[in-house]
Amino acid sequence: MQLVRDNLYVAEKSGSAFKKSLKRAAAGTLAAGLFVLTSITAAKALDEVTFGTNWVAQAEHGGFYQAVADGTYEKHGLKVTILPGGPQANNRLLLPTGKVDFLMGGNMLQAFSAVEQGIPTKAIAAVFQKEPQVIMTHPGQGLDSFESLKDIKLLIGKGGLNSFYQWMISEYGFSEDQVRPYTYNSAPFLADKRLGQQGYLTSEPFAIERETGIEPNIFLLADFGFDTYSTTIETTNELIEENPDLVQRFVDASIEGWYNYLYGDNAAANDLIKTDNPEITDEHIAFSIAKMKEYGIVDSGDTESLGIGAMNDERMTSFFNKMVKAKVVSADVDYKKSYTLDFVNKKVGLDLRPN
Length: 355
Prior knowledge:
alpha/beta, 5-stranded mixed beta sheet, 45% helix, disordered N terminus
């Protein structure tokens, strides 16, 4: 009988252990299931948005690619697809139709034009504090001041003639008689050392230096009063009104992306840029980043205290008045409808800025 009782005791203890094992297994399975479910839910919680750029991928878009590459957008609950622009693409047309959620603008002239045409979009941040538009001259020719440019012929494209050059006429006394057509070929400039040429700080000077080994004189129009914001982020009035939280998260993440691109490890972002634009070189990317830093294109002025992307009403009013004076923009355009300050000037990312 004792043997029977002992066997029953062992069986009972074994059964109890087995039950506990089953409970532990069930609890483990439940926990694993909850983890998977939570992961799936978290993945589904990412808001998918598309950001259209205004040209092919380049270092001037670096902060946006950085935010994709290092997970900053995901940290802010976003899954962002970058849709590059280019000569065969016009991403601006896709914004009001809802094909893209956010758009990289050029300068504020486009935003003013949108208001004039009744297109319901706004600039919500300004990544570039300075428009990178320049005039170049050859060194050693006595063309070392902005005033000296009025004594020579200038290669200016049609778009430039109708925008910044009209400001140069009204503000500094340049004349249309000086203008010769710029066809985005620098051969005439290289052939004639007494010619000036328009360019983009991070593009034409790089090509000239690579071609000749000579660094051209650079006159950044922003430093002479062409005070538009540039490389803006635009979105629709509808998205601003219906989902301001999403708009804020996109702006904040993009700002952080730009700090990390300029001051952190940007190798992964540059790899993405080269994937989208195989023609760009590491040399060109490095040149562009250096020039953006040297001239304070992204991080200068208000950004030092308010963060990258900063905008203010005074600058907007100043630029608008200059464009009205130059007869580029009609005085009756309600320019204040072209932008909002609701999503910037919040000091986002300042902790990422080197002292």
